[in-house]
Amino acid sequence: MDANQKRVALVTGATGGLGTAMCQKLYEDGFRVVANYRNAEKAEKWKEEQKVLGFEIDMVEGDVCNFESCQKMIAEIKEKIGVIDILVNNAGITRDKPFHKMSKEDWDAVISTNLDSVFNCTRHVIEDMREQSFGRVINISSVNGQRGQYGQANYSAAKAGMHGFTKTLAMEVAQKGVTVNTISPGYIATDMVMAVREDIRQKIIQQIPLGRLGGTEEIAYLVSFLASEKASFITGANYAINGGQHVS
Ligand code: CAA
Fold it and tell me: CATH no. for residue 105?
C-alpha cells in the first residue's frame, strides 16, 4: 500500500456515543473514516457537528439488519473511497425486559441489529480483505455478553454470539493477514446506559470496583490500536473494559 494512502475504516452505528468517539479517534490517528447511519436527519446534524470540531468524516446510509442494504453500502464505499480495511461492528440497541415479558419483536430487533448485522457487514468486506492480505474486524460486544444481566436475555445472547463469531473467523482468516477481535465494554456513559432507570443505574455503578461509568474515549483508544499495523499479532481476542465489574 502507498504510504500516503490512508486506511479506510467503516464504523457502523457511528452516530451513537461509542461510535462517535471511535470515529474521532480513528480520524485523529490518520484513518479515512466512514460513518454508517440509518437516520438521515440525525446523521446530517452529526456530520455538521463533527466538521465544526475538525473531523472530516464521510457518511454512508445503510441498514445493518438488512443483508442487501449492507452489500449496497459497502459497494458504494468501495466505488467512491476504496476497499474497506477496517470494519468496526458497533451498531447495537437494547430492548430490556424480563424474559417472561419479552416479545418476539424485542427478541428479533436485538438479535437482528446486534448479531445479524455482524454477518451482514463482515460478509461483504471479508473477500477484499483476504485478497489484499490485510484487514481488521473489530466487534463491539459487552460485559453482558460475558455474564448475564437481568432484563437482557436478547442482548446477552447477541453479544455472546459475537464471541463465537470472532474466535472462528479469526482462525479462518489469520493466514490472510486479517485479524478479528472483540471488545467488551462495561457500563459506559452513553445514551444507552443513561436510559437505564436512575435508581437501577446507581445500583449498577455501585457494583463497578472503579466506582464510575467508563468514558467513550476509553473504548475508542483500543479500537484505534487494534486497527493499527502494530496490532497484527492480536487475533481472536476479547478485551474487557469494564472498570473491574466482571473479571474472568
Ligand atoms: N436480579 C433479580 N431480580 C431482579 C433484578 C436482579 N438483578 N432486578 C430486578 N429484579 C426483580 C425486582 O426485584 C422485581 O421483583 P418484584 O416484582 O418481585 O418486586 C422485578 O424483578 C421487577 O424489577 P424492575 O422494577 O426492575 O422491573 P421493570 O419491569 O420495571 O424493569 C428492566 C425491568 C427494564 C429490565 C430493569 O430491571 C432494568 O433496566 N434493568 C437493567 C438492565 C441493564 O442493565 N441494561 C443495560 C443497558 S446498557 C447496555 O446494555 C450497554 C452495555 O453493554 C453494558
Answer: 3.40.50.720
Q: Count of alpha carbons within 13 Å of 246, Cβ hemisphere only? A: 17
pLDDT in tens, 165-201: 999 999 999 999 999 999 999 999 999 999 999 999 9
Q: Determine, yes or no, domain membership for 248.
A: no
pTM: 0.96
CB 27 within 8 A of CB 57: yes
Structurally, how many domains does the chain consist of? 1
Q: What's the CA-to-centroid distance between 190 and ligand 1, angstroms?
A: 18
143 in ligand 1 pocket by Cβ < 6 Å?
yes
Identify the domain containing residue 111 by its residue range.
8-241
Top mutation candidate among 103, 150, 156 for ligand 1, by most atoms within 8 Å of CB = 150
CA distance 225 to 25: 10
Is 1 within a domain?
no
Is 231:179 a contact under the CB 8 Å cutoff? Answer: yes
- Asked if residue 246 belongs to a domain, the reply is no
Distance (Å, rounded) from C-alpha 199 to C-alpha 9?
Answer: 38
DSSP codes joined into one string, 67-94: HHHHHHHHHHHHHHT----EEEE-----
**150/148 Cα distance (integer angstroms):** 7
Region 97-103: mean pLDDT is: 98
Q: Is the distance from the beta carbon of residue 144 to the nearest atom of ligand 1 less than 6 Å?
A: yes
